Amino acid sequence: MLLVGLKYALLLAVGGCILPNPILGGGTESDQEVPHRIYRLLDGLSGERTLSSSSTFALLLSQFLIKQKLRYEAPTRYERQLYYHLLHRMENIRTGSGGLVQEPGIQGEILSIAFQRNVLLLPHSLKLGELNANGDYEQLAEIYSNVVNEGQLNRTQSDLCLRDVVELKPPSCKLLPGQCLELLTSDAPAYGYQRTHQVLLLYVLQHQVCAPHLSPPQVYELLARSQCDEVEREQNAIRSLGLPVAYRDLYLEQATICGLFGYNEFVNWRNIMEIGSWLAGDTPKDKLADENDSQHISDLALVFFVNALLLLH
Q1: Is the dihedral of CA 239, 242, 247, 253 positive or negative?
Q2: Are 312 and 267 in contact (CB under 8 A)?
Q3: CA torsion sign, 235 to 241 to 245 to 246?
Q4: What span, in angstroms and rounded, lies between the C-alpha atoms of 77 and 168?
Q5: What pLDDT does 36 receive?
């Protein structure tokens, strides 16, 4: 009877009906903090029949980060089990929701390609003390509510440029349209989501196979450092204001996107515990200014915690 039960459970697991979390390693409670967070967020997505574009993008990016880690670093036995289980779980969630065919228009075009085709896997490691820790943020904090929405990039421009970036492919790595190149390299003042979208575009471009044909690797690193210097100044301003609920979604987006470049100023245990406290309940609704931000912050948190797992463990 026991053998029959085990065989039945195995068949369900292979079929995607049951995919239990692996037994996590025997480390300390803090060692298991991040994996537990990731699995809890994936549990929240497992029941969704149709994933939002934000959730799909978060899953694709999380899978990409894990594959990049496996490409350059030999995992321990436990890490291999954990990473491959996460990849399998994420893929099951995506395919179980109907994959990428749900999104029309530009977002659908982006999600059909992003982090799946013509990508460049690069070494990924934690970078300590590379940003300007002494950036003046006190004056910015005083006027932040007035400038947080200032900048060149809006959502439509961001989506159009992101589509142009993910569609780059060899052998003819054409230059991006002038407007997108200008947005990527501009040092004009930008704040809030305008700045984070600019940094995300840079990250995606850096990880396209055409990237080395457009600029030397050092150029991408210099641009990332310059832009994330400004993002860190914003984060310090937000922290000095007491991390208001109204800015928590933005704060997490800043930590997630600049954290993709490995900067320890964003990927650290202080942020892990702070952000984790916003997700302490079944949903983060009571931690946010707008209930509509609930899924977006969960999607950001998934990428943030996956990246933290790969960099800090």
Answers
A1: positive
A2: yes
A3: negative
A4: 36
A5: 95
d(CA 76, CA 69) in angstroms, rounded, equals 12
State the amino acid at position 42 in one-letter form. L
Give the residue among 54, 56, 48 at the shortest CA–CA distance from 91. Answer: 56
- Distance, CA of 203 to CA of 206 (rounded, Å): 5
Q: pTM of the full predicted structure? A: 0.88
Q: What is the pLDDT of residue 102?
A: 59
Encode pLDDT of 4-13 as tens digits.
343 333 333 3
Contacts of 296 (CB under 8 A, 6+ apart): 54, 249
CA pair distance 47, 54, nearest whole angstrom: 16
Domain boundaries along the sequence of the chain? 30-312
- CA 118, distance to chain mean position in Å, is 19
Cα distances (Å, whole numbers) of residue 90 to 56, 83, 102: 10, 11, 17
As a whole number of angstroms, the distance between CA 161 and CA 219 comes to 19
User: What CA–CA distance (Å, rounded) separates 254 from 257?
Assistant: 5
